[in-house]
């Protein structure tokens, strides 16, 4: 107040108080010269009146928080988060289940704020958020040591319908590695429905991948196994036998181009919640992997109009609409 009366600018006052200039500017805008749009009797900034207004605002009743402990909404949100859903997916699903009841409408930002308001130990114990790292790691292009194959069918030769993602039966594939690259799990993702299949592999050899992928695809009808897009790892050296055995065409992405298999790369990141890096993946049985895949398939996706991959895929498989309830989600969790 004294410096304002002396004619100092907001920048000079901020420098003297060792505060950001924006803090001083906001305070002068709130409590200087005009109070809630009405002319002040005392021109300039009055500290006593500013304090009086701040105390009055603090005592005003506020709207109760939507995600408070005694509200019915918070337990429902926790159920979906514990099932592995993101705050955005939980928000969209609740809004779809209760379109006309605003009491069940909550934004994903509100859910995030409620989670981070928890004590850090409790948040970590409940494992409500999928990604644990605080920042993105730098990406380095280093040789992967797997070697390269020649004369491969290129991704650029795929039929146009693969890129459009309007029809099922087009897949992306990859391997995720365990500790010291001594264990592996095969990942297969349907481009149209985002449906995931996980394959237990004894090792990362071409023969093991051939047998594991053949068994996975053999469970599907021919109309749901058309193409497979993979990277140029040597574990796919027997791709011609795979194509002949299950009747799908295999295409290979360009080197160092993970965005050409973006759906599979995204699923790989989500799988690390259940199959962390640096752990032995061979301890997981095929039943364990099927359970993990089903949890991912029961999460709603924005790109599917908030439907679940399992709903979209099974609808194509059986030729009739399939819908899951919250009770089905709880059973999966």
From TrEMBL:
The UniProt GO MF terms for this protein read: DNA binding; transposase activity
The keyword DNA-binding belongs to this UniProt entry's keyword annotation: yes
> By its UniProt entry, which Pfam families does this protein fall under?
HTH_38, rve
Region (Disordered) location: 133-159
Q: Which residues form the Integrase catalytic domain?
A: 164-317
Q: SUPFAM superfamilies attached here? A: Ribonuclease H-like (SSF53098)
Spell out the Basic and acidic residues composition-biased ranges: 141-159
Keywords annotated in UniProt: DNA recombination, DNA-binding, Transposition
Q: What superkingdom does the record give?
A: Bacteria
The Gene Ontology CC terms held by the record are: cytosol
According to its UniProt entry, the protein's GO biological process terms are: DNA integration; DNA transposition
Q: Which family does it belong to?
A: Belongs to the transposase IS30 family.
State the protein's purpose. Required for the transposition of the insertion element.
Q: What is this protein called?
A: ISMsm8, transposase
Q: Which organism is it from?
A: Lysobacter enzymogenes
């Amino acid at each position: 107040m004294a410096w304002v009366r002396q004619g100092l600018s907001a920048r000079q006052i901020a420098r003297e108080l060792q505060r950001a200039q924006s803090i001083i500017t906001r305070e002068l805008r709130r409590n200087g010269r005009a109070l809630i749009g009405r002319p002040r009797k005392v021109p300039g900034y009055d500290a006593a009146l500013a304090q009086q207004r701040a105390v009055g605002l603090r005592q005003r009743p506020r709207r109760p928080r939507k995600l408070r402990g005694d509200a019915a909404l918070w337990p429902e949100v926790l159920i979906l988060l514990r099932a592995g859903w993101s705050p955005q997916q939980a928000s969209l699903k609740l809004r779809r289940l209760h379109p006309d009841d605003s009491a069940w409408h909550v934004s994903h930002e509100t859910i995030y704020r409620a989670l981070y308001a928890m004590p850090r130990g409790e948040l970590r114990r409940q494992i409500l958020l999928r990604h644990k790292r605080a920042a993105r790691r730098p990406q380095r292009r280093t040789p992967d040591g797997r070697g390269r194959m020649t004369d491969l069918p290129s991704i650029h030769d795929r039929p146009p319908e693969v890129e459009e993602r309007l029809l099922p039966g087009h897949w992306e594939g990859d391997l995720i590695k365990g500790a010291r690259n001594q264990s592996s799990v095969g990942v297969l993702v349907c481009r149209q429905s985002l449906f995931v299949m996980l394959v237990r592999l004894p090792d990362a050899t071409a023969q093991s991948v051939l047998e594991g992928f053949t068994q996975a695809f053999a469970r599907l009808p021919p109309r749901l196994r058309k193409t497979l897009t993979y990277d140029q790892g040597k574990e796919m050296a027997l791709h011609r036998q795979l194509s002949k055995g299950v009747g799908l065409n295999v295409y290979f992405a360009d080197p160092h181009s993970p965005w050409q298999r973006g759906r599979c790369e995204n699923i790989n990141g989500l799988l690390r919640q259940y199959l962390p890096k640096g752990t032995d993946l061979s301890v997981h049985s095929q039943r364990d992997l099927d359970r993990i895949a089903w949890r991912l398939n029961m999460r709603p996706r924005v790109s599917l109009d908030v439907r679940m991959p399992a709903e979209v895929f099974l609808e194509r498989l059986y030729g009739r609409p399939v819908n899951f309830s919250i009770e089905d989600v709880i059973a999966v969790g």
